Amino acid sequence: MIHKKHLAQYDIFHATPHTILHTLMKLTQILCVLIISGCSVFSDHHQPCKIVDPDLSQGVYHGNCNEGWANGYGEVNGAGSYYGYFLSGKKNGQGVKVMPNGDRYTGEFLNDYRHGKGTYVWGDKTQWAGDRYEGEYQRDLRHGWGIFQWNSGDRYEGQWKNDLRMGPSVMEQRRTQAEKAITKPEISNKMICAEEKWDLTNLQLIRGEIEKISDQMVWVRIVEIEGGFANYQGSTLTIGDLFTDKESHWNTCEQY
Q1: Whole-prediction pTM
Q2: pLDDT (tens digit, 0 to 9) for every residue of the chain, 256 residues total?
Q3: Is 66 found in the same domain as 24?
Q4: CATH of the domain at 104
Q5: Per the domain annotation, does 116 fall within a domain?
Q6: Strands (E) located in the chain
Q7: Do both 149 and 116 map to the same domain?
């Protein structure tokens, strides 16, 4: 309760000019304190920073905020977790995200997508546990140059397009080479044949003996040509010539 003597000091109707000036100064100081105090109160009750990623949107966020959105560096723990940079609530720039299933991505983000260079490791809760990809991304898809390392030890290094690899893995290449090594001795030193146009309507048969096979190429010793010679694949062949050609151009002679 305010005492009458305290009210008297603010009675501007019976006060001297000096007293009025002093009273106004006091009131100004009180008003400034109230304004400053009010600002700090409101700053402690600002709206929480919003995040677009549904794995993180309900989590606890610590970091910079701009107009109600996570902006700049921040850390958040929700269904998943993330620490790195945001722009208007979206992951943007360098960051590390751990998915709800335990998968982990470390690298570049753009507009909330994995985009740029990064490393993705599959977590223990998935059937791909221990598999690892390191390379380029485009809107969450592996795209560009990348290395995929299977937990089994197999490995692929090369181009990716829309999340698909554009070539065989190391083990697939070895398996193909092993299959070729098994089949090549079976046809080595055997007769193979090819056909070439004699004229507009007729074909001539060329017979040869395999002397060597390597990297889908075959070295053929010509032993028989219908008509004595042939213009084959831009070369003139005669009996006795050693000719190098693609293995796919020749077949076993039983097929002719």
Answers
A1: 0.55
A2: 444 444 444 454 455 555 555 555 565 555 544 444 443 333 333 448 999 999 999 999 999 999 999 999 999 999 999 999 999 999 999 999 999 999 999 999 999 999 999 999 999 889 899 999 999 999 999 999 999 999 989 999 999 999 999 999 988 888 777 666 555 545 555 888 988 887 777 788 999 999 888 878 889 999 998 888 888 888 888 999 998 998 888 888 877 7
A3: no
A4: 2.20.110.10
A5: yes
A6: 60-66, 69-77, 81-87, 90-98, 104-110, 113-121, 132-138, 141-149, 155-161, 164-165, 191-197, 203-214, 217-225, 229-232, 235-238, 242-246, 251-252
A7: yes
